[in-house]
Amino acid sequence: MSLWETLAGKRASSSSSGTSSSSSSSATDLQDASPTAFEPAPFDPTTAQDVSSFLGGAALPDPSQLHPLAGLNQQTLDYLSLDESALSDLPGGRSALPSRGWSDDLQYGTGVTYLSALTLGGAYGMAEGLRRTPMSAPPKIRLNSVLNSITRRGPFLGNSAGIIAMVYNGINSTIGYYRGKHDSANSIVAGALSGMLFKSTRGLRPMLISGGLVAGAAGAWTVMKKTLF
After folding, report:
1. What is the largest CA-CA distance in the chain?
2. Average model confidence (pLDDT) for the chain?
3. Are 98 and 146 in contact (CB under 8 A)?
4. How confident is the model at residue 107 (pLDDT cuts 50, 70, 90)?
């Protein structure tokens, strides 16, 4: 046996003996470190928590507090409530809706008049478009004619009535302020003046006709208001 083989054999034997000794020592350590006895605690069903334990009133916040205005005092916010003391106190100033003065009358009167005239004008335009188009025309042509008539008659009548209503409410509130009361005379005079002003650029005859029509409409409104409200 050569010197090299002798040295190699000794190294192999020494390494194998070292590996076996280390493995035996690690196994002994694991046996010593393992617990001898493990007993889990018994389960008690009475101590379990159900859904009501985390859905109770104390666990969840009040839903009403999630509102953006939850922390505000509603008694100090004037726009949330219409107080009776803020309403118009002039004789005859109460109308179909609660009013706090000329600004409310201007908004309500102008808005309702505009929408009503717009609806009536659109209905008249639809009937006009259907009447002018022959029955033998294609559906697209009939639809185009109806839409053209609606968009021509509806906005024209709505804008005209809205302007008259705006001027009427302004004149009526001014007359009522200086007279100290609201009555039928105020409405009729305001209607006549607003109608005449609306046609003031067309000549005397159109002014008188327009003033008479608006005055008659204002008189009919005052009679209906006294009858129904």
Report:
1. 145
2. 74
3. no
4. confident
Distance CA 76, CA 51 (A): 41
Q: Residue for token digits 């069903």? A: 45
Query: CA–CA separation, 150 vs 143, rounded Å?
Result: 11
Q: What is the pLDDT of residue 73?
A: 63
Whole-angstrom Cα distance, residue 228 to residue 65?
Answer: 43
Dihedral sign, Cα of residue 156, residue 160, residue 163, residue 166? negative
What is the pLDDT at residue 101? 66
Q: Give Cα 220 to chain centroid, integer Å.
A: 36
Please tell me the distance from the alpha carbon of residue 168 to that of residue 106, in angstroms, as a whole number.
9
Give the DSSP per-residue string, 65-132: GGSTTTTS-GGG-GGG---GGGS--STT---SS---SHHHHHHHHHHHHHHHHHHHHHHHHHHHHHHH
Q: Would you tell me how many other CB atoms lie within 10 Å of the CB of residue 213?
A: 16
CA 77 – CA 110 distance, rounded (Å)? 27
- In the block, tokens 């470190």 appear at 33
